[in-house]
Design goal:
By secondary structure, the protein is an alpha/beta fold. It is built from ten helices and eight strands. Helix 6 links the parallel strand 5 and strand 6.
Length: about 325
């Protein structure tokens, strides 16, 4: 009997040079900084077939469809990006590759997550989102203090009102609030705090991490996803890390995850075999120190996809199947 063919697992890189959702310019350089830091090479060395789809290009900004929501800066421009990305994310997920969306500011997740959620809904599997971030990003146009749309992205994903026409004709596949985990939070506005509490969204702030450790808390996330037969999208904002580790971000907040804590998070996620899509956001090379933050981000993605210092038996459920 011939051996069954084993397909090489695939990752699909897509750059999203978007910066207008944030307060500081520079994140549009993030995708190319990650490439320069070797993200494709590292994944290739780990045995993945790497498909680099370049950077997303958008058509002309969509015409206004009525007055934009109040307190949502650059709404029409961001709307154009989100619609283009949402459709592209859906198509990439359908190929069976693991999409890695390289940003760009965190507003891009409104398109990336919605696109992969559409795919997994068709497959009949719930999509969970792990939000690794210093900020909750749970504002709406009615609660925001700045109008910056990267601070509204998590709220949009769970179906909060205020940006209801953002996707146009694309289906909006909202994530139930019990399928969102906010992890590493240490900066949250009062209205966000109230909404997160009212919606009973799981939140592991840095106090919880200090008390219980990242291992215990990440395993809780993993077990909940497994219990429902779900898959996991990791939305990794590099400001999840302490600024001493990753200075190249526009909204630094002291007291973040250490280098070792972050690697443990990624290693445990890899061992789970649940991760099927990833965002890497808010890398701002203009604010970085000689590419240091980009290199750290690539090292962490390496851990997420199986890079280990010492050889350990790989759990059978850590295989990344081709879902095409």
């Amino acid at each position: 009997m011939s051996e069954p063919e084993v397909k090489t697992p695939r990752v699909a890189l897509l750059g999203i040079p978007l910066e207008i959702g944030a307060s500081q310019r520079g994140t549009l350089m993030g995708p190319d900084a990650l490439r320069t830091a070797g993200i494709g090479r590292v994944l290739g060395q780990l045995g993945f077939e790497v498909e680099d789809h370049g950077n997303l290009a958008i058509p002309a900004v969509s015409a206004a469809e009525g007055p934009p929501p109040a307190h949502a800066k650059y709404y029409d421009e961001i709307k154009t990006w989100i619609r283009a990305l949402g459709e592209r994310a859906f198509q990439l997920a359908r190929t069976g590759a693991i999409p890695i969306f390289m940003g760009g500011d965190h507003s891009l997740s409104m398109g990336s997550v919605n696109g992969v959620a559409r795919h997994w809904k068709q497959q009949g599997r719930p999509l969970f989102v792990l939000w690794l971030d210093a900020h909750a990003d749970y504002n709406t146009p009615d609660t925001t203090e700045t109008g910056n749309m990267h601070g509204m992205s998590a709220a949009f994903l769970t179906g909060e009102p205020g940006l209801d026409a953002l996707l146009g004709d694309q289906p909006r596949v909202s994530i139930p609030t019990d399928q969102l985990d906010l992890f590493g939070i240490r900066s949250i506005d009062p209205p966000e705090k109230e909404m997160v509490r009212d919606r009973r969204i799981a939140i592991a702030d840095m106090r919880a991490i200090d008390e219980f450790g990242v291992g215990v808390l990440i395993r809780r996330v993993i077990e909940r996803v497994k219990a429902q037969g779900g898959v996991l999208h990791v939305s990794f904002d590099v400001d999840f890390l302490d600024p001493a580790v990753a200075p190249g971000v526009g909204t630094t907040v002291p007291g973040g995850a250490t280098y070792r804590e972050a690697h443990l998070v990624m290693e445990l996620l890899h061992d789970s075999g649940l991760v099927r899509s990833v965002d890497i956001v808010e890398l701002n090379p203009f604010l970085d120190e000689r590419g240091r933050t980009a290199r750290v981000a690539v090292e962490l993605i390496g851990s997420l996809f199986g890079l280990q210092i010492t050889d350990r038996p790989t759990p059978s459920n850590a295989v990344f199947p081709d879902n095409s």
